Amino acid sequence: MSHLSPAEFVDAAEGALVPARAAHLESCASCRQQATRVSGALTDARRVDVPEPSPLFWTHFSARVREQVERERIAPAWRAQSWRERVTVRRLVPVASVLALVCAVIVSGLMTRERTAGVPPEAASIAAAVSADSTAAPDESEAWDVLTSAAAETPIEDAHAAGMGVPAGAIDRAVQRMSPEELDALGRLLQTEMRRSGD
Amino acid sequence: MLTRTWTWTAKEPGCKVAVTNETDAELVQACLAGRREAFDALVERHQRHVYQLCYRFAGNHEDANDLAQDVFIRAFRGLRTFKGQASLGTWLYRIGVNVCLNRVATKSRVEALDPLMAASDERTASQEESAAEALLRGERAAQVRAAIAKLPKKQRATLVLRVYHDLPHDQIAGILGSSVGAVKANFFHALNNLKKLLT
Questions:
Q1: Whole-structure pTM value
Q2: B8-10 and B16-18 as β-strands: parallel, antiparallel, unpaired?
Q3: Which residue, of A17, A69, A164, B181, has the fewest CB within 10 Å?
Q4: Which residues of A fall below an 8 Å CB-CB distance to B?
């Protein structure tokens, strides 16, 4: 007959082993040793009590929970919500963030190409520098503020659920395709953001 | 609509029982109907078990208190999602296990693992017991507690729910989202590892 399984050792320690397996346990030294081990650990574990808090603790515990509920002004999940409330606030933020990001990248790319197409190289570099300067102060851009605040308030789970995750290698490919002016502008943006997050 | 008055009588610390014999399901319905005092009743009814569960994970009173409050706040927020398939107690245990496993993993377990600190917290010695016996028992309890704190998450949760809350295996399976077989196997490994850690 086979040795006892882990579940059967648990049953044995709890006095719920079926008679046929109990007979094996009686006759098998190896299983008996293991069963003794498990029972001993169970006995040790059962001896540990939770210290009783002061009676005052119980008196005040529910009051503290009530206060916390009030203080946090929890909007209960069970409050009836219209479809407008459900759709407009939380769920649209990640979608709007993605759309805004995509639009910003496309418009920026098109504008840079239009400015530089058919223009002498010197003029193109000046135009690009102007373009870079205009993006050098993202704090002053309302659109950027809206975008960053929406993204900052979006939980990472929602962002992933909304498809905001970046595929592997996509960033590298995007950076490789950038012009020197675009890279310069990106560098400024990153530095500004790093300074801000360091505050 | 429920029109009963809410009066309470303290049978024992932490276990105030409503004079009205409202079931948990009725109290939940009252909460959903906007009666905040019904939630107070639920807190008072379940606070001891929730606190004890949290203490088993946290190993000290302060963290157990914070965790237990967190459990009830989350329960309040998610009350609408309680479908009543399991008992409210089981549902609270599920929230409690999740809160504890998430939070305790990120916090220092110094107090839980420090035998001297934990031993000083033992207040269960009987008056007949000598100081030396009480100290020895307290130290042993602290060792067991420290060993339990070192168990892998699922093993620890299984052991706590089974040994200290006396939940049946199928209920533990429901709380942990696993099968009864897996719960028994986890319990076996928890006891086995506990023995190893204590020898």
A1: 0.58
A2: antiparallel
A3: B181
A4: 6-7, 9-11, 13, 37-38, 40-42, 44-53, 55, 57-59, 61-62, 64-66, 68-69, 72, 74, 76-78
